[in-house]
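Journal club prep — side note

Before the paper discussion, L.F. wants everyone to see what a predicted structure for a comparable chain looks like in token form. Sequence:
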Amino acid sequence: MRRTAYTVIGVLILCVMLFPVYWMLNASLQPSGNTLTAGFLPLHPTFAGYKRALDEQGGNLVTSLIIAAGTVVLSLAIATPCAYALSQFRSRWVSIGLLAILISQMIPGIVIANALYTAYERLGLLNSIPGLIVANCSSGIPFAILILRSFMMSLPPSLVEAARVDGAGLFRAFVAIVLPISKNSLITAGLFSFLFSWSDFLFALTLTTKGRVRPVTLGIYQYLGTQVQNWNAVMATAVLSAIPAIVLLVAAQKYIAAGAIGGAVK
């Protein structure tokens, strides 16, 4: 009886949490108009909003995908060897380095964005995809280091030492031994780096000024100002922008659980 009550409460909480998602999907299928006049169910669904969203925001979705993929690649390329070094080396500077990484996570994003704006203006990285990739890595790399290091702490040094005895160099031993074993934590860190970049709005708003490069989050924000009478297109854009994140989370959920707690249970 108690389990049934807990289940009912859990289902109710889940319904409340998912209601905004349902309403977004419902509004995207309604005929053009204000969401205040939309029915609770899309009795006469139309995909006109999706057609308009793809026509007007498709390029922004592609831009977001490129930025998010680039952020994942650059974050893992820097964070993985750094995390391995921090997990294997024994030095008092390791603690200081970890403290610096934690502090970097506490710096407000607007502070980093404003600091990057001046540097980007001098370097010519404003309104560019590489500039946004590097900016998003400022949050992706520290998080990836913390996730990867917690797992790599459990790797016995004898594995790499055995590879070295067999003739492998440091780089080859790292690639052939450490990376395959760390697959779960790599997927977890990469997924969260993707989500950080995919949902970024602050860096996109601060570091793009001319509209040549516009991620979908900024596209939706600017869409609201011109399409307030056609909310189905706005909501369709929001639904389309949520699909990549949902697909990745569903596909990688087993790796996320294993990668997040891997370092704690070994």
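L.F.'s comment for the group: The longest helix spans residues 48-88. Keep this in mind when we get to the figures.
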